[in-house]
Amino acid sequence: MRELGIGLIGTGFMGRAHALAFNNARAVFDLPLQLKLVVLADADGERAERCAKAWGFAQAQGDWQALINDPRVDVVAITTPNHLHYPMAMAAIAAGKAVYCEKPLAVNLEQADAMRQAARAAGVITRVGYTYQHNPMIGLARQMIANGELGRIISFQGEFSEDFMADPASPWSWRCEVEHAGGALADLGSHVLSMARYLVGEVVSVCADTQTVHGQRPVVKGSETLQAIAVDDQTHALLRFANGARGTVSSSWLKHGYKNHLSVEISGTEGTLAFDQERLNELRVYRTGQKGFQRMLAGPDLPGYAAFSPAAGHQLGYNELKTLEVQELIMAMAGQGADGSDFDDAWEVERLATAIRTAAREERWVRISEVNGEAGA
Amino acid sequence: MRELGIGLIGTGFMGRAHALAFNNARAVFDLPLQLKLVVLADADGERAERCAKAWGFAQAQGDWQALINDPRVDVVAITTPNHLHYPMAMAAIAAGKAVYCEKPLAVNLEQADAMRQAARAAGVITRVGYTYQHNPMIGLARQMIANGELGRIISFQGEFSEDFMADPASPWSWRCEVEHAGGALADLGSHVLSMARYLVGEVVSVCADTQTVHGQRPVVKGSETLQAIAVDDQTHALLRFANGARGTVSSSWLKHGYKNHLSVEISGTEGTLAFDQERLNELRVYRTGQKGFQRMLAGPDLPGYAAFSPAAGHQLGYNELKTLEVQELIMAMAGQGADGSDFDDAWEVERLATAIRTAAREERWVRISEVNGEAGA
Amino acid sequence: MRELGIGLIGTGFMGRAHALAFNNARAVFDLPLQLKLVVLADADGERAERCAKAWGFAQAQGDWQALINDPRVDVVAITTPNHLHYPMAMAAIAAGKAVYCEKPLAVNLEQADAMRQAARAAGVITRVGYTYQHNPMIGLARQMIANGELGRIISFQGEFSEDFMADPASPWSWRCEVEHAGGALADLGSHVLSMARYLVGEVVSVCADTQTVHGQRPVVKGSETLQAIAVDDQTHALLRFANGARGTVSSSWLKHGYKNHLSVEISGTEGTLAFDQERLNELRVYRTGQKGFQRMLAGPDLPGYAAFSPAAGHQLGYNELKTLEVQELIMAMAGQGADGSDFDDAWEVERLATAIRTAAREERWVRISEVNGEAGA
Amino acid sequence: MRELGIGLIGTGFMGRAHALAFNNARAVFDLPLQLKLVVLADADGERAERCAKAWGFAQAQGDWQALINDPRVDVVAITTPNHLHYPMAMAAIAAGKAVYCEKPLAVNLEQADAMRQAARAAGVITRVGYTYQHNPMIGLARQMIANGELGRIISFQGEFSEDFMADPASPWSWRCEVEHAGGALADLGSHVLSMARYLVGEVVSVCADTQTVHGQRPVVKGSETLQAIAVDDQTHALLRFANGARGTVSSSWLKHGYKNHLSVEISGTEGTLAFDQERLNELRVYRTGQKGFQRMLAGPDLPGYAAFSPAAGHQLGYNELKTLEVQELIMAMAGQGADGSDFDDAWEVERLATAIRTAAREERWVRISEVNGEAGA
């Protein structure tokens, strides 16, 4: 069986999530390629060593460029802070490697465009970590929609809200910087925009409202020195889809009580479905003729679930969605097309976010096609 | 004790709801005035007779003008189709009577303005049937917000969706006519706009999107003759409030699976509350420091509930919200200020709906102050 | 139309609930008899006067025997404390009047048996206030079961728990006296036993465990003088039904967080249904082949609901269940058989409760047929 | 760092779950011992080879005795069918190895007793896969109870119901054989009995009712040849705890609509908590003074959760509970006491199940101390 060498950059939460996912994908799926965890890189070489050992990587590296250049590495997985996605992905593409990058793809649309153009030109496979879409319940939702089980789709209501910045004493971080693709829309909203495209299709125009509620935050936790904040705390938008559906999207990192409230409700001429990531193993579905919503619980009739458990109700966790994402990457590497988000998809999501920001700033409807976001534009 | 004579026009669902409410208010509350159910009018005099008997009215009438002129009548309750609200209310005001009118106040903003101006000039008490606000749980929500228990309010998300028009075979009715204040926004959305004002305060500007999904419907059930439909099936809007809060409002009568989904979620700097009319005896509340949302169940610590039951969990129904509305009307008649919606409030709601329609038609943000909607304007 | 004269004894919460129900039944239903609210009795004659006026009774009485003797009274409604049910009902039966009595029927099984024997001998119609059964959703559940939609019934799990006595400082009341049919089983559990019979059928044997957790309570609120308590705070039982189904019943008035948690879950060979009085307008149903439970919301397809609202989702409250109970009483009085609980049913419920207490006391399985509970036995 | 060699027997669903858990424990926790996945055994040696490769074991084996004898193996993990637990565990104990065995410990109480006696005598560490207890939310529940946050515990209601045998056409399997510890009580109910002990403490007496609803099943799927079935399809029991609490336990594999409905509700003099495995990341808690139940969502304030995600709401899945179980095993191996179920605990659970079966068969209350279940007794 052909080997597939993995090089992973980054050892934070997302680095570990990738490592777990590669390990588990190997154990759980009957993969067409033989995964090799070749090298793990972190600027802190000692940390890289320690993590490589714990996570099953054959080698550690302090230098990410060396990882990319390593001939045994076929896929470069990037889990570093956002501003590093661009240089690392571009280097990997230049080296002819596949790239598996965390979201957001880049810190601005021009970078993102350059990256997708480069990937296309080089013919390399790319994937971006819009992990929530790999939930088998989302796959089921997509299939139901595609099969017409809800009829013609007419509305979409999406939200991604959490409360981790609700306390005004929550300090500044890179997530509060425009230059690092910060703000609630980029950090959280992008997931629900991606979900909107994945489930309903392309958006053609938007109108929006963004707001910075807490214009200053401590520079570090507990400090009395305040830092001005320019990114959005909450964003609300109206969406029009190419297929005629209409809807709204909201995102906030100030909404008390919510921890991972990525919710979508999609309604068609023959039914409605609703999903909330806080109950990721459930899908609520109503179809014409039913007496009320059915609460469906994930089970082994869905292949993505069956991989982890033969019994309904056992439930998947977030890390297993990551494993499903990795599986799709590997299937793509084996030429067995899977449907994850590639750089083109990720660019479309960021273009949509850019359109939303423009619409909010200029207080008008913006057609997505207005935003070409090309590198150099 | 001073008597208060009630004249009720209309014997449909809403007429009966009023009749029940007057009867029950008398039984349930220790009222400062002695209610007399004087006369019930319906164009169908025989039906008026029959209903008067069943509902405890002393007399029946085929002629609503005679009811208004009856010197024993102090309050004229109007539950007729929307286009009759204007002539009836104007006649009642001219006769110096208090008016208790179902929503919407009128079929256009100019009529509504004329009505409120006339009521002001005549100094008569008015009330409009935004019944859902009289829910003790909504009263509790309002009080919590007013007390600052959620901190400064920063977001509002409201929706009123049902599915009674979801089937394209659902026929045309007066609800499908612009001239009769038809459409999902007027029929359903107005309730959530009223709730937005009641709970969060004045809206200053809106942007919106309305859509007619089913442009034709059978003229009557089962007919193959189709009637063109111009009113909205669904509307989505962005709201900016005077106090700085931002949010969205949606309404639809096409959303499968929902029967009375009037929901609001209001978030502040120190907490969030959520309500859904489909579970009208519950309020979900999260405040800083809690581990998760509390599901509060209506109980006798709320006076509006205690009137009906000494025990928590017994639950109120819709008709009891109507009784609470009637109680507030009577308290106002006794000079003991209560807080229901009067003609000024109802006009503000319709002005807001008008602004939303304008914003949608002209595809731009509209300041509410642009819409003067004055009679003759 | 023939008149039906109502005499109501008692002006507490239940007295008022009856009064509201009689008034509303008249307004809401097209009744075959003409209801007359003839006389209201209360030992406190002044209070009787005041309430009679507010509730629409033609006359007030301080003497309940006079009410019973009043030739205009056809139905005697009894809402007094439990120990008065027996003398009042026996007097009413002796006078040939129909009796509508609150639950429990009596303070012991012998009294209850004497009452049902007397009612049979006199041929009078009787009804007992097991109000929760009149919920249209319970009617729907019963119909589904009767139609075989769940297949053969194999399990029943019922509970009625509240927390109004959870605080050990909650003082003694007559509900704490065996002689007044006190305790959690009699006060709450009897409702779920009645529901078990109504939905699944006769119970043939039981085993049980009862417990007094707080053996002493203040004689009055705030007092340091404690009163010994002998009635059960919580009871758990195993049930075997005549049709082969098995199950459990629990009741407690100490269970924190619950206000009206009368819940039943019934499972058959082809499906399961679940109900909780704290969400009285909902029924959760699963049938073979479904993907998950459907949450059904009460609507006008159920006649008992349609009487109050033409629109689904408007929701009924507790007082409307009482109105439905009254309607069934009136239909029975008109010879148009309805299915409320009569004295025989109520006796069966108390016999079942007696069997449970015996089983708990003697720590053994008890066949219901062992408990004849005959007067004088 | 000292090495800890793992030998795993079995490659079914549970074998893989163990393998995943060992791999992930290594990646996720900072363990005091260095895990080595030494050898994987399966009677089908070829399958063992394939799985060993996929799951990261250094070697495969067709002979489990050889695995036990392998000097590099310190812990023998047993995931084979129930009847093999006894010989394998006894062999491992004889070899002085720690044993990590799936539940049930054995196919009868005598075997189980012999196993725990042997383990004690040999001084080896043992663990049994009552995996659901390792949920951080259950840990939180236990801690709240231990801290007295619910006051004195007075009631326990537990259930474990699924519907995988609800269809009478579901064929016979070893789970239908008494000799293989089959039946709903052993298969499902044992988990909730274990949970009862873990959260509330020892049970002192029981009364119970078991029932075989479908007395015959096809010998294999689709066959018309039927096999008589003697094990219980559903069991209901009353429990009395040593600390005075009372309650019920139910288990069924016939209850339509449920997939993994392991639920517990525990009530004390100051509060109530409720958990359902179908929403394993949630705990509902009510404490005196609250307005309603709080729905708590798992988050990184719980160490067992933080190991997998730094963010609340991400959610754990079943396989991660297994990883937590493995971590506790390893901590125990390192002499850093953790609190999983050992053979003594597992024997107590089976003793309790035996008492329940005895109580059902003999239709009487049974004291747990009556059941000595000693080997040879």
From TrEMBL, chains A, B, C, D:
Residues in Gfo/Idh/MocA-like oxidoreductase N-terminal domain copies: 5-130
Keyword terms, alphabetized: Oxidoreductase
InterPro entries: Gfo/Idh/MocA-like_OxRdtase_N, Gfo/Idh/MocA_oxidrdct_glycsds, GFO_IDH_MocA-like_dom, NAD(P)-bd_dom_sf
MF GO annotations: nucleotide binding; oxidoreductase activity
Cited SUPFAM superfamilies: Glyceraldehyde-3-phosphate dehydrogenase-like, C-terminal domain, NAD(P)-binding Rossmann-fold domains
Domain annotation GFO/IDH/MocA-like oxidoreductase: ranges: 141-273
Domain of life from the UniProt record: Bacteria
Protein name: 1-carboxy-3-chloro-3,4-dihydroxycyclo hexa-1,5-diene dehydrogenase
Species, as recorded: Pseudomonas trivialis
